[in-house]
């Protein structure tokens, strides 16, 4: 195993070993408390009656268990509907982002038309423009084109992600030229090369882009709040703050818990991908 | 090797301007020009409509007075003057700087220390980093609403109960102008720290064993190795996360919007919240001119920071 900061001989020293073990136990405790603690508390509160949560929020075993909270939240508060909206919004944003990033990446990195560098430059330029500048004019565009209260208002703007394009373009540019050349010699046209050679070779980067797309869509709040004023089409993130005003606390906390299940589950399943993407975020953005 | 290379140089070195006459659209299409364009079409449409045009429009609108209903007037720099003359702007700028400063104090050292410690874990390191990253995947709205409940000001609020165990509190948390902002930053730090930890862990994995061994031969202990090997090797990443954090905190919206709505007494009013209020806060119709003028000014400040960031990462990846 690769060694790090502390050398094997230092690890063998009893004093260092003991300190290290204590520090790591402390670290694990701290991470459990701060990382897992709030989520566990939310899970508990989701099935606890309101009175218990209010009177003694930190009791580990509440006097009563109220599984009905989850059912009430799912059915009467219609969390199922907002949940579905969230999923549909995420799926559409994911698809649009993937289509834009892969076709553009292919054109710019493999086909390389004469005007490609210019397009790349203009796309890169938008990295410098913070999203807030777009807020008002983009909102007015959505109003003018009648996309307000439709999912398109969220799906299409999501595709304009310069970060995705750059990421995919760089990956495509590093694909082995010989493989693409061989496919071309075998008579594959540009579309065929794209679909049957480039995309299958690019699974890692497509995974990264997918994680970014789904997570970002699930997290998004301000934009859907503006362009989806009709509660019937709102995602969870927009609906939850509004619900708080007229739903009982235990049901509300159950709704919060339900809203976190999918992202947390996705994270547990695709942990490596998430952590990889997270690291990429710092390293590649420039 | 020589056989495979022709494809690349041809594309890198610009082809000499051949004595070509105007190419007809047919030859252009046959040579793949049409295919190229079709592949670029999704990008051109989506970016054109939802990025480039709005950016341009934003600049134009900052010089206009418009409310969607009445006619549009060009008003020169009036919007900028109006925004700069708004006493609330300076409160918002001050608060945003205060948020950024607090976020640095809370959020800068903790992930670094955590990452260095996690990187020395031998067994189950994945568990450590997963735990650290877990808050990042919790939807931000859920996190804020959950913490809002934790911050409940009554003695039986979650955090006040904990304070009660050690004989403190109850504190007012979000209701007190002095503590509201730190409370917001605490939640924001909790939500974001895991991402920074992962970035540091990736950078720490790049520090080679030889460098540590060389330091050990010179007689360096653990602290000296941290100071003379680890930290210098992380310098680039530390600068990057520093700038990214400033850029991020300058655009903080969700926390003040959902926790406090800018209150109490405007103590958590941030620049982004002010932009939102200008444009969408009034039921009488938005002051879009003021909103775009302020967002352009914010963008100018952030662009300088981004340029700095790009410069740093360029020189850093070059070494």
TrEMBL record, chain A:
Compartment(s) of residence: Cell membrane
Cross-referenced SUPFAM superfamilies: MetI-like
Topological relation to the membrane, as annotated: Multi-pass membrane protein
Record's keyword annotation contains Cell membrane: yes
Xref: InterPro entries: MetI-like, MetI-like_sf
One Pfam entry name: BPD_transp_1
Protein origin, superkingdom: Bacteria
Stated name of the protein: Sugar ABC transporter permease
Organism: Lentzea pudingi
TrEMBL record, chain B:
Bilayer topology: Multi-pass membrane protein
Record-linked CDD domains: TM_PBP2
Subcellular location: Cell membrane
Keywords (A to Z) from UniProt: Cell membrane, Membrane, Transmembrane, Transmembrane helix, Transport
Biased composition annotated in UniProt, kind: Low complexity: 1-13
Family label: Belongs to the binding-protein-dependent transport system permease family.
UniProt-recorded name of the protein: Sugar ABC transporter permease
């Amino acid at each position: 195993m690769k060694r790090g900061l502390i050398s094997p001989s230092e690890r063998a020293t009893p004093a260092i070993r003991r300190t290290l073990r204590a520090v790591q136990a402390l670290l694990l405790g701290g991470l459990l408390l701060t990382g897992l603690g709030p989520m566990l508390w939310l899970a508990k509160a989701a099935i606890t009656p309101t009175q218990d949560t209010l009177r003694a929020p930190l009791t580990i075993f509440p006097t009563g268990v109220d599984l009905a909270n989850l059912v009430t939240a799912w059915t009467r508060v219609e969390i199922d509907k907002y949940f579905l909206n969230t999923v549909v919004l995420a799926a559409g944003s994911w698809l649009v982002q993937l289509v834009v990033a892969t076709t553009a990446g292919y054109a710019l990195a493999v086909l390389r038309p004469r005007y490609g560098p210019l397009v790349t430059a203009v796309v890169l330029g938008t990295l410098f423009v913070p999203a807030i500048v777009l807020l008002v004019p983009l909102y007015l565009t959505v109003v003018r084109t009648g996309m307000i209260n439709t999912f398109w208002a969220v799906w299409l703007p999501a595709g304009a992600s310069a970060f995705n394009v750059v990421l995919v373009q760089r990956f495509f540019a590093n694909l082995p030229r010989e493989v693409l050349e061989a496919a071309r010699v075998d008579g594959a046209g540009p579309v065929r090369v794209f679909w049957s050679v480039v995309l299958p070779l690019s699974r890692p980067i497509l995974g990264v882009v997918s994680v970014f797309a789904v997570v970002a869509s699930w997290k998004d709040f301000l934009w859907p709040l503006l362009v989806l004023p009709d509660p019937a089409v709102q995602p969870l993130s927009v609906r939850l703050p509004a619900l708080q005003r007229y739903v009982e606390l235990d049901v509300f906390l159950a709704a919060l818990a339900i809203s976190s299940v999918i992202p947390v589950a996705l994270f547990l399943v695709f942990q490596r991908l998430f952590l990889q993407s997270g690291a990429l975020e710092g390293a590649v953005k420039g | 090797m020589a056989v495979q290379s022709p494809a690349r140089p041809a594309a890198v070195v610009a082809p000499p301007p051949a004595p070509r006459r105007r190419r007809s659209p047919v030859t252009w299409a046959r040579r793949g020009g049409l295919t190229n364009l079709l592949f670029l079409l999704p990008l051109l449409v989506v970016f054109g409509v939802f990025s480039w045009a709005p950016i341009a429009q934003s600049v134009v609108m900052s010089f206009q007075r418009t409310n969607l209903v009445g006619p549009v007037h060009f008003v020169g720099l009036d919007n900028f003057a109006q925004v700069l003359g708004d006493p609330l702007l300076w409160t918002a700028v001050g608060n945003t700087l205060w948020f950024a400063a607090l976020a640095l104090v809370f959020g800068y050292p903790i992930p670094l220390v955590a990452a260095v410690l996690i990187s020395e874990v031998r067994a189950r390191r994945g568990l450590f980093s997963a735990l650290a990253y877990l808050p990042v995947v919790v939807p931000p709205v859920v996190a804020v609403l959950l913490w809002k409940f934790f911050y409940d000001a009554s003695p039986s609020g979650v955090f006040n109960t904990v304070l009660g165990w050690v004989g403190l509190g109850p504190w007012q948390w979000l209701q007190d102008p002095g503590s509201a902002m730190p409370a917001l930053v605490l939640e924001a730090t909790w939500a974001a720290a895991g991402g920074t930890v992962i970035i540091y862990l990736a950078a720490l994995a790049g520090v080679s064993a030889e460098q540590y061994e060389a330091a050990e031969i010179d007689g360096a202990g653990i602290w000296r190795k941290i100071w003379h090997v680890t930290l210098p090797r992380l310098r680039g990443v530390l600068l990057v996360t520093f700038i990214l954090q400033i850029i991020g905190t300058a655009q903080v919206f969700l926390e003040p919007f959902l926790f406090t709505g800018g209150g109490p007494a405007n103590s958590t009013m941030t620049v982004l919240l002010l932009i939102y209020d200008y444009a969408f806060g009034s039921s009488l119709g938005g002051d879009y001119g003021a909103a775009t003028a302020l967002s352009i000014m914010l963008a100018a400040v952030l662009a300088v920071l981004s340029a700095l960031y790009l410069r740093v990462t360029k020189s850093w990846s070059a070494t």
